[in-house]
Amino acid sequence: MSKLTTQRVRSPIVGSRFYAGALEALVHIKDGADVLLVREFDNRHDKNAVAVFAGKQQLGHVLAEVARTLAPLMDARGASEMLATFSCNSSGRATVAVNIERA
User: CB-side exposure of 45: number of CA atoms within 13 Å?
Assistant: First the structure.
């Protein structure tokens, strides 16, 4: 019986300026709110792309370095979506965090 370990993965939300309404939406999201991470299988810039959504509003993406970790885990589990927790630090940098369980 293998023991599961949990790793907390964090990433700033990047690319918000490319999505209409994203910057305004980020101002209104409360710390600790759930956001959705969505695999973008057809993203031509990054085969591991993981987008961040609050409802129907795309907020941006997780960093490519983080997506390289998350995407294969999501794919292996057949999960195209995953819940994450939103936070914003004192300098206004929006981030997401998700717990990943591994055997």
Answer: 8
DSSP letters spanning 43-98? -SS-TT-EEEEETTEEEEEE-HHHHHHHHHHHHHTT-SEEEEEEEE-TT--EEEEE
What pTM did the predictor assign? 0.91
pLDDT tens digit sequence for 18-46 = 999 999 999 899 999 999 999 999 999 99
Angle, alpha carbons 78-30-56 (nearest 5°): 45
Residue 102 contacts by C-beta under 8 Å, 6 or more apart in sequence? 4, 5, 6, 7, 73
Domain ranges of the chain: 5-102
For residue 101, the 8-state DSSP code is E
How many CB atoms lie under 10 A from the CB of residue 27? 9
In the CATH scheme, what is the code of domain 5-102?
A: 3.30.70.2330
